[in-house]
């Protein structure tokens, strides 16, 4: 039976906590019930409200400061001056304030560590004294299916703490909405995760079973929490004082359900394995696996024909094995190549080029402007802001990682805007295209493009070639200084370039 209740704590927190712990209002309070209520009351005090003032970069006019906004979320104390929350709660933050339950005082805080790829962050307050006596929440285990959990936080609609009960309905490997590119283990519960709940603890038996982080808008009372394996991995990663990101094997797989395909690759009806269709150049598996291999096991865990493994008692995506490892760790792969079984140890590493497909936070847009032409490196932020419909740019974006384009072109430079001026008349048709070369020199990074557009000795002409366009864009060198001054004055461009994040 679906069990779902909601209760909001008032200033009389202890009285309500005792009431919640009772099975019914008519049953007498046992010593165990009172003790449990006292424990819950203490735990609630360690769940804090987070207010954030943000400044979101503007990728359409990158020289501007960006849009100011704000929001609220939840956090909880896990150690001395260590408050855990979601990365999306404090993304692009310019000011962070923490409020303790039952208090009106706002405490200035800062972000210690942030992991956007798994949507977790750790905060600290400037003065921890008021929090010294609060209990630290302990990280527990992954809750079992059909078991009950409590979601604690400060959802919109009120400033007081809210507690919602729900049942664990699914354990899965799903995308995390924060970056739009990363997938990890998630736990689904039949309790709504509303704005403001984000970053709050999901408790079971007095321990943290997960961190509330996103809901499902297409269904009622469906929310997701980040489970403790992801939380523990984040905490272990930052033990050395920095976050190193997730490692990746770098393979593309295809499920082997089709009987004809299985026969071609010599697999029986019940044989395990998925087909390796591509290996990212420079990735962990590059030079070890190759297209056409059948991957049958990872670290001794059999990979079925859908790419899943049974791990820690649950059937999950095979990448969960790699998820729990770190840079420099090894993973053992079993695979079939040309009908022969083989094994190999793969040393794992990160794949920085993969961040092309993830939304970036806390970074100023990079750009350079010359003669009213605005050039910016392609990433998901830029792609989303400009909604490029140029098929050539789309192919470059799609193949940046898969086809190894990043090995030759660290940055794909896009002419995103033409700030109209007499020097650049009749060139707007070049907007939205990728810059290929400047004066016959191939462009590979934004820094290089900026240097080529600003040489010590100005050439008579700047000849710019673009991918897929059979005519150049030409700017007269001797008119650029005056044109740049006009453009900056007419369009309020405070700075002609920013080459660093």
Automatic annotation (TrEMBL):
InterPro entries: DEGP_PDZ, DEGP_PDZ_sf, PDZ, PDZ_sf, Peptidase_S1_PA, Peptidase_S1_PA_chymotrypsin, Peptidase_S1C. Keywords: Hydrolase, Protease, Serine protease, Signal. It comes from the Bacteria. PROSITE patterns: PDZ. Residues 1-21 form the signal peptide. Residues 253-305 form the PDZ domain. PANTHER family: PROTEASE DO-LIKE 10, MITOCHONDRIAL-RELATED (PTHR45980:SF9), PTHR45980. This is PDZ domain-containing protein.
